[in-house]
Amino acid sequence: MDNGESSYRRFLAGDNKGLHEIICSYRAGLILYLNSFVQNVRTSEELTEDVFLELIIKRPKFSGKCSFKTWL
Predict the structure, then answer these.
(1) Which residues, at least 6 apart from 26, have a Cβ–Cβ distance to it below 8 Å?
(2) Is residue 1 scored above 90 in pLDDT?
(3) Which long-range contacts (CB under 8 A, 24 or more apart) does 36-40 make?
(4) What is the model's pLDDT at position 2?
(5) How many helical (H) and strand (E) elements, i.e. helices and strands, does the chain have?
(6) Hey, which bits of the chain come out as E strands?
(7) Can you tell me the distance from the alpha carbon of 56 to that of 19, in angstroms, rounded to the nearest whole number?
(8) How far apart are CA 52 and CA 55, in angstroms?
């Protein structure tokens, strides 16, 4: 799998499998990253859910100026 960009593009085009791939690939790392700020695993998990909900609801544009992981 690539860096997530093609999965996100597929999701934006209507392929929900793309979103599933993003969640599976980035969920654990995002939780760890957020936990380094909030120092609470439950809060980190909730914030991670918020990030993915933001992708689903708002479908922000990914410009490709940075890596997909950094953008996420």
Answers:
(1) 4, 69, 72
(2) no
(3) none
(4) 63
(5) 4, 0
(6) none
(7) 8
(8) 5
